[in-house]
């Protein structure tokens, strides 16, 4: 049953909009998690955002920790991004021909990133990963890919695959409409399990095109891997002539400008980007060495294209974002702010002896209702604990704190979150935890 301390906020206008939306869209939404199926109530329809704050259709104000699922590392309505986008608008929205803006964003990225030599812009993270997989298969002339249980890489066919039972199994499709033949080419293993990784290469020697892992798995809780494991992953892929793909759609430009590759000090063969790279506009990208990228059309035989790829307005937003991110101490300050926020919450939890943990890396955090000291694999998350997240989520919304509508999703802190925002949020988080455990 739903315990609440505070009265539920008014959702009248959002509820009306949702009723209408249900007539137009499956489940009333254009991306499933937005439907609030895993938390109380119906979705809030957002009207506007400014800095770390958002307002819904009923004029409720929230401090936002979802940040559009990661892209908004500079918060909402950032001055530099808005000005850059506005300036581009009057020049044209799309040409389907090269623009200098693409060069500018590529140069900003490549000259500040030791891990890629060439890049290709696409329009979403899904597209970036899908293309990276094709590149890996085209380059190695092998078909199988290995992914990890609990890692999300967008909704392309080869990657909508979940683990079967057993140490090493062919995947099972995790969506209707994905042919079994596709899932047969995807092998799914548990994270942080050297034995499974070794077994996979023993069993499928010379058949594996690539292993793909999220820079830091952050789509099914925050599953922080050990450095040792990531280095082993690099070693075993190299030894077997398989490529290592880092999906940095979340971690790219988040863990630091050079993302998880720099954090782990590992050179992946292909890196995919999304979210932050477009500053809130639809952009994805994949990058690799010159040699690998020469396989992509029109230089090579791996086909990949896009009508809106490198879109000038989106490039302008990406350039403005990257200019801020490359300023000295940007990440140092953002990460320090997050560390303080998280450590104060952690202290409170410990003081009260509540059975919840807050895991963190850089400016990402995740609440796990568990007594375990660490959670490194998807199977270590107790699905029943999500009931507690639901309670917390409802209480936080009532108190003006917006978290993602699922306990499996991580939270993000942006450059725009002020100390005052974080102090306010912390007090409400304490109260929400008191309610959950009260
Ligand atoms: N890869 C990762 C690691 C992601 O987190 C996501 C989206 O959340 C994707 C790929 C897919 O990106 P998009 O939603 O832009 O298609």
UniProtKB/TrEMBL annotation:
Per the record, the pathway is:
Porphyrin-containing compound metabolism; protoporphyrin-IX biosynthesis; 5-aminolevulinate from L-glutamyl-tRNA(Glu): step 2/2
Tell me where in or outside the cell this protein is found.
Cytoplasm
- Which of UniProt's keywords are assigned here? Cytoplasm, Isomerase, Porphyrin biosynthesis, Pyridoxal phosphate
Catalysed reaction, written as an equation: (S)-4-amino-5-oxopentanoate = 5-aminolevulinate
Pfam families annotated for this entry? Aminotran_3
N6-(pyridoxal phosphate)lysine modification sites are 275
Protein family (similarity comment): Belongs to the class-III pyridoxal-phosphate-dependent aminotransferase family. HemL subfamily.
Quaternary organization: Homodimer.
User: What protein does this entry describe?
Assistant: Glutamate-1-semialdehyde 2,1-aminomutase
Native organism is: Sphingobacterium anhuiense
């Amino acid at each position: 049953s739903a315990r609440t301390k505070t009265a539920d906020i008014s959702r009248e206008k959002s509820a009306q909009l949702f009723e209408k939306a249900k007539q137009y869209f499956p489940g009333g939404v254009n991306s499933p998690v937005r439907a609030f199926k895993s938390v109380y109530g119906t979705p809030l329809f957002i009207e506007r955002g400014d800095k770390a704050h958002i307002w819904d259709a009923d004029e409720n104000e929230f401090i936002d920790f979802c940040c559009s699922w990661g892209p908004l590392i500079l918060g909402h309505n950032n001055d530099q991004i808005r000005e850059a986008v506005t300036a581009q608008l009057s020049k044209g929205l799309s040409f389907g021909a090269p623009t200098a803006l693409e060069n500018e964003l590529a140069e900003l990225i490549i000259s500040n990133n030791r891990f890629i030599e060439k890049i290709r812009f696409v329009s979403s993270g899904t597209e970036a990963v899908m293309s990276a997989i094709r590149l890996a298969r085209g380059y190695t002339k092998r078909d199988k890919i290995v992914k990890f249980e609990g890692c999300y890489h967008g909704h392309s066919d080869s990657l909508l695959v979940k683990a079967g039972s057993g140490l090493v199994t062919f995947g099972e499709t995790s969506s209707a409409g994905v042919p079994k033949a596709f899932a047969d080419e995807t092998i799914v293993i548990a994270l942080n399990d050297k034995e499974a990784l070794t077994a996979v290469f023993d069993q499928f020697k010379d058949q594996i095109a690539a292993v793909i892992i999220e820079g830091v798995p952050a789509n099914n809780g925050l599953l922080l891997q050990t450095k040792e494991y990531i280095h082993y992953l690099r070693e075993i892929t190299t030894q077997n002539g398989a490529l290592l793909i880092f999906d940095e759609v979340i971690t790219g430009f988040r863990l630091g400008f050079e993302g998880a590759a720099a954090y782990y000090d590992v050179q992946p063969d292909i890196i995919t980007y999304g979210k932050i790279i477009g500053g809130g506009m639809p952009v994805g990208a994949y990058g690799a060495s010159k040699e690998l990228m020469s396989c992509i059309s029109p230089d090579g035989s791996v086909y990949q294209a896009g009508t809106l790829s490198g879109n000038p307005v989106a490039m302008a937003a990406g350039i403005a974002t990257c200019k801020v991110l490359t300023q000295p101490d940007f990440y140092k300050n953002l990460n320090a702010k997050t560390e303080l926020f998280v450590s104060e919450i952690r202290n409170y939890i410990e003081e009260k002896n509540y059975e919840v943990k807050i895991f963190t890396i850089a400016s990402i955090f995740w609440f796990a209702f568990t007594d375990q000291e660490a959670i490194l694999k998807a199977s270590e998350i107790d699905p029943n604990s999500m009931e507690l997240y639901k309670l917390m989520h409802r209480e936080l919304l009532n108190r003006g704190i917006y978290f993602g509508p699922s306990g499996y999703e991580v939270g993000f802190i942006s450059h725009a979150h002020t100390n005052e925002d974080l102090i306010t949020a912390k007090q409400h988080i304490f109260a929400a935890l008191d309610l959950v455990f009260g």
